[in-house]
Amino acid sequence: MATRRIERTQESRRVLVTAAAELFAEKGYRQTSFVDIADKAGISRGSIPWHFGNKLGLLEAVVDDQLQAVLAGLPPRQGELPGDSLDQVVDFIRLPAARLFITLLAEAVEVGSPIREHYARLHAMLRQAVRARIPAESLPPGVACEAFTVLLVGAVIGVHAQWRVAPEAVDLEAVRATIRALLPAAPGRDDREREV
Amino acid sequence: MATRRIERTQESRRVLVTAAAELFAEKGYRQTSFVDIADKAGISRGSIPWHFGNKLGLLEAVVDDQLQAVLAGLPPRQGELPGDSLDQVVDFIRLPAARLFITLLAEAVEVGSPIREHYARLHAMLRQAVRARIPAESLPPGVACEAFTVLLVGAVIGVHAQWRVAPEAVDLEAVRATIRALLPAAPGRDDREREV
């Protein structure tokens, strides 16, 4: 009995998060009401505060959920950039979650936005995930890991933006090749026996 | 008399473009009405179609205007990247126009968005302006100018996005130094006598 109740609870939470993610991507955070979400999810409106406290709590759950999906597509923390891991980072550009992230970004940069700090956390977690995969010694001399991460995450965001509005104008394979060419095999990459 | 009328016409056009730019940045394209713009500009609603045809014509004028402001901040077409010109491209990250561009981007990626092609033109013009300042022979071997431009414009867009939501988490000077370190003086940069 108890197990089945937990399953129902987890299932209704999951359905609400999915419905909210779709509505936030489509209409934005502010324009989406609990009624919209409950209608789409087919679950009573009252269950939203029960699960998430308030609307920001729901946003946090949505962002975490989408971020987990993004991170699941990343290679394990093998500390192997510039090679294959970098390719997979570039593949973020094709992410379906990106539409949600773009819509929320527009609201996050508004003056006094309630969602700004939640959005900042999204970027911070993306940077952390990428940084964990870039051992400092694999980067060319003079390139700091922190700033390189900002640049790489930024490039993915901004190349995605260009590709979304004009896919025919952006050759993703050529962009990938360019990143590889700009990051030639750096000293220390074949010297990975030692633990960092 | 005729001169003064032209001045009044140009002035009212300018005031309408400025008001529309602020409202589009604040509320988005779709949510902004001619009445909002006329009220803010203090000019009759009927003068908007007279100047711009329709709302998309007004958007085009706004984007062109902001883009001209952006390009005015770029160095002249001296064909000198990676050095100082690159620094100035990175300075785009601090652009005030960027909020307008982020808000419009969120609408441009919507399914069936009427503004997508106008937005694509904005990216295309940014790429064109940057590309004109990067002579192909100044790039490292294996780096294609077209893809490099997409990557650089993308990095500026995406670093800006991160900086806007969390300025304390993004060290713009370190990002600039990283771009410089990734683009070491390439062959051909001191070989600029020949015309390309």
Give structural notes:
2 copies of one chain form a homodimer. With 196 residues, chain A is mainly alpha-helical. Chain A is 63% helix and 0% strand. In chain A, α1 (2-27) packs across α4 (55-72), α1 (2-27) crosses α6 and α7 crosses α8 (145-165). The longest helix of chain A has 26 residues, at 2-27.
Q: Summed up, what is this model?
A:
2 copies of one chain form a homodimer. The first copy, chain A, is an all-alpha fold.
Attribute tags:
homodimer; about 200 residues; mainly alpha; Arc Repressor Mutant, subunit A; 2 domains; disordered C terminus
Largest sheet of chain A: none
CA-atom Rg of chain A in angstroms:
20 Å
Poorly predicted residue ranges of chain A: 186-196
| CA distance, first residue to last residue of chain A | 49 Å
Structural class of chain A: mainly alpha
> Beta fraction of the residues of chain A?
under 5%
* Tally of strands of chain A: 0
Summed over residues and divided by their number, the pLDDT of chain A gives a mean of 81
Helix coverage percent of chain A: 55-70%
- Helix run count of chain A: 9
Query: What's the number of structural domains of chain A?
Result: 2
Q: Which oligomeric state applies?
A: homodimer
Shape of chain A: elongated
Order of helices and strands of chain A: HHHHHHHHH
- Main interface: chain pair and counts: A-B, 51 and 51 residues
Q: What's the SSE blueprint?
A:
The structure is a homodimer of 196-residue chains.
Chain A lengths: L1 H26 L6 H8 L5 H6 L2 H18 L11 H7 L7 H11 L7 H16 L13 H21 L6 H11 L14
Helix pairs in contact in A: 1-2, 1-4, 1-6, 4-7, 6-7, 7-8
